Structure formats: structure tokens, C-alpha cells
Amino acid sequence: METPDMPLNLPTAIECYFEIDKTDDLERFSECFAPKAEVIDEERIHTGIAAIQNWAREAKAATNYHVTPLSADVGEIEAIVTGQVEGNFPGSPVTLRYFFTLEAGLIIALEIKP
Fold first, then answer.
1. Which of 45, 58, 73, 112 is 20 to 30 Å from 101 at the Cα level?
2. Residue 110: its pLDDT value, please?
3. Burial code of 39-78, b = ≥16 C-beta within 10 A, e = fewer?
4. In a domain? residue 64
5. Is residue 22, in this structure, part of any structural domain at all?
6. Total structural domains in the chain?
7. Which residues make beta-bridge pairs with 86?
8. Structural domain includes residue 106
């Protein structure tokens, strides 16, 4: 596990996800997600890049959130990133865990949990 002042050394696809999330250039999600990737957030499943882009677009519009990755446990095909999420929602900021699964250098699954 890393501390906030140390680099997290995330796999490229995961770095790409957080960078795109910061810039709101959601069309670039195809650079980090596999075509049939799944995202599970708030018990809803979003499958495929178009659905993932819509999920992110709707979440940004509703809450204007941003994520600051704080720490990461990185394995060969899985990584857990803990991030602080701030935005226009009750209880902000919150700490969430991002469970990533990678295949061939792309994200095939992402689950976001408290």
C-alpha cells in the first residue's frame, strides 16, 4: 500500500481511467476499457463502453464529483484503489474502493464500493 505522497504505480489502463475521469473526456474510455467491460456502481451493472460512458456522464452531471486516488494494492490482473470522492452529494467527501480486473492491458471489470 502506498501513502498519499508516494506514487501509486498503477497499471496504464487504471491510470488512464482516473485521468479521463478528471478531464471528463469520456469518449477516451475505449483506451482503458475492453469492449465488453462491466462497471458495477451502486448495485447497477453497466456493460460495454457506451453504457460505461453514459454511467460516468450521468454521475458527473448529477454530482459533479472528482476522485483523488489515495492508495493502491496492485496485483498482476487485479488492483484495488482507495480514493477520496468529493462532489455535490450527501456525506461528501467519502472514501470508496475501486476493484479493477485487467485482461490484455485493459479493464474488463470495475466495481466501486464503500
1. 58
2. 99
3. bebeeeebeebeebbebbeebeeeeebbbebebbebeeee
4. yes
5. yes
6. 1
7. 66
8. yes
Please, what sign has the CA dihedral across residues 65, 68, 70, 76? Answer: positive
Range of 86's domain? 12-113
- pLDDT of the residue at 24: 80
With beta carbons less than 8 A apart as the criterion, state whether 66 and 86 touch.
Answer: yes
What CATH number is given to the structural domain containing 54?
3.10.450.50
| pLDDT at residue 6, rounded to an integer | 52
Query: Taking Cα atoms as reference points, which of 66, 95, 97, 73 lies closest to residue 9?
Result: 73
Please name every residue paired with 67 in a beta bridge, in sequence order, or none if there are none.
85
Q: Is residue 6 part of a domain?
A: no
The whole-number pLDDT of residue 54 equals 97
pLDDT digits over 21-78, tens only?
Answer: 998 899 999 999 999 999 999 999 999 999 999 999 999 999 999 999 999 999 999 9
